[in-house]
Amino acid sequence: MAIKSDIEIAQSVTPHDIGEIAADLGLSNQDIDLYGNDKAKIHLSVLERLKNKPDGKLVLVTAITPTPAGEGKTTTTIGLGDALHRLGKKTMLALREPSLGPVFGIKGGAAGGGWAQVIPMEDINLHFTGDMHAIGAANNLLAAMIDNHIHHGNQLGIDTRRITWKRCVDMNDRQLRQITDGLGGRICGVPREDGYDITVASEIMAVLCLSNDLIDLKENLARIVVGYTHDEKPITCGQLKAQGAMAALLKDAMKPNLVQTLEHTPALIHGGPFANIAHGCNSIVATKLALKLGDYVITEAGFGGDLGAEKFLDIKCRKAGLRPDAVVIVATVRALKSHGGVAKSDLAQENLHALEKGMPNLLKHIENITVKFGLPAVVAINRFPDDSQAELELVRRRCAELGANVALSEVWAKGGEGGIKLAQEVLRLTELPNDFGMIYGDELPLKEKIAAIAREIYGADGVEFLPAASKDLDKLTALGFGHFPVCIAKTQYSLSDNPALIGRPIGFRITVKSVRLSAGAGFVVALTGDIMTMPGLPKTPAAENIDIDADGRITGLF
């Protein structure tokens, strides 16, 4: 029998009416906006109404450093939620929205896989409820108002060489990284160098995800710095009077999206910043709402624990006042052997030597969560049929040395049933006291915050700041932004800033090449290595395999 693809599995399940899912959560028709029968947005007034209700338990799912072998973090997250649901626990999922860039690029969709998916996966992976388009429109409205202000006399004295605000599009399009626009004479604007980011790297995405309500959103938008004058004074969105119109565009995008898993566990999918170039977490409002609606909330942070989890814990938890109860670290035997130097074609063969060589990567992530952040953790091994018992035992034994239990997860093949043991361990961990603390305090200088993350989380010997980055950090401190947390843009493929250094590299230094201020979001972005905020498509993009038939049935999504 042929194995069904993810989209075939998703299309084989009939979703419950989303109104029924909402009703089970205690929501009325007045609390939601329906987007067909399988999607809805929840009004922010619900969060205000439930503000005095005790929060549920918060569980963060992260992973080892990604490899070509794959880890299955989102799949594990969804399967864990379904397993808890099967155990009779009132469970909510809080996930990010996929970006069209990876969907049509190399990574594919982000709705889970196998029998652990959120549905309707086609909509979630494509236009969904229009949030990405609203974010892009708000971003580009601000860009248009900047250039319009300059065209009509530039009363604020904006230096056209020092405009930091870029346009955006939710697509991998390397051609737009650096452009020259405003050509064609006076009527077409002022010629200048410009560029595009992918929408999920836009500060608007970060602002939406880190705002508590519409008023907070508007105030945060007003604080966005779009560039500088000739005498180096910052120019804000508020000075351009753009924040009101931008907030109006984002009014519905601020409402969390309600969908369901294949097993009808409710899921909030809202916001989608990348974790390698942004802060990698779903929205504060979705997480807080989930904590009011469920007794257990399972959320994930993008890529490995050095990226998404660090930013979840150091940025999102700091801003939202969140305190996780437990952490799940997802790994596969195959991925650990990949960190041990095994070629992708040979990963199915037992190789204890390579597995032992790759284990330090997992052990570093365990150390980061349990020792550096003070949180209880369980390692979820996303099991493959060719994993040998000897390999699984080696992983269990080495993890136990750091006090982390291992639970096998088979949710891809079995759905929630395959995650029962993992769910039981998670339930145990959430009842334990923890010593959660962040890596750095607000008072630490920006350079020292970056150095603390590099040293404690990545295992680096130190940080090199290129002259431009060092100058900008000093300037941001002088302008009053030194108390901000830092968001490090770094390759997802290594604990270092060099994607070729797999496993747990030692004896390396991180190089900060440039710095961006995200004053509206409330953090400073440090760009390292060759990281880019506008990805490109691979030689054979996933888009080549996506199709639709005469009945509107989509194929090729994964």
Short key terms for the protein model shown above:
globular, 558 residues, 34% helix, 25 strands
Compact overview of the structure:
The protein is α/β, with parallel strands linked by helices. 34% of the residues lie in helices and 20% in strands.
Please give a structural write-up.
With 558 residues, the protein is α/β, with parallel strands linked by helices. The protein contains 19 helices and 25 strands. The relative contact order is 0.16.
Per DSSP E runs of 2 or more residues, the count of β-strands stands at 25
Report how far apart the termini are. 20 Å
Number of helices: 19
Binned, the helix content reads: 25-40%
Strand proportion, as a percent range, falls in 15-25%
User: How does the major sheet shape up?
Assistant: 12 strands, mixed
Mean pLDDT: 95
Helix-and-strand structural type: alpha/beta
Shape descriptor: globular
Rg, nearest Å: 23 Å
Unreliable runs? none
Helix and strand topology:
Elements (H helix, E strand, L loop, with lengths): L5 H6 L6 H7 L7 E3 L5 E3 L2 H5 L7 E7 L9 H14 L4 E5 L4 H5 L7 E2 L2 E4 L1 H5 L5 H21 L6 E6 L3 E3 L9 E3 L10 E3 L1 E3 L4 H7 L4 H9 L2 E5 L4 E3 L6 H7 L7 E5 L4 E4 L14 H10 L2 E5 L4 H16 L5 E6 L1 H7 L12 H21 L4 E6 L6 H12 L4 E5 L1 H4 L5 H11 L15 H13 L3 E4 L1 H12 L7 E4 L19 E10 L4 E6 L18 E2 L5 E2 L3
Parallel strand pairs: 3-16, 3-17, 4-15, 4-16, 8-11, 17-18, 18-19, 20-22, 21-23
Antiparallel strand pairs: 1-2, 2-14, 5-6, 6-14, 7-12, 9-10, 12-13, 14-15, 22-23, 24-25
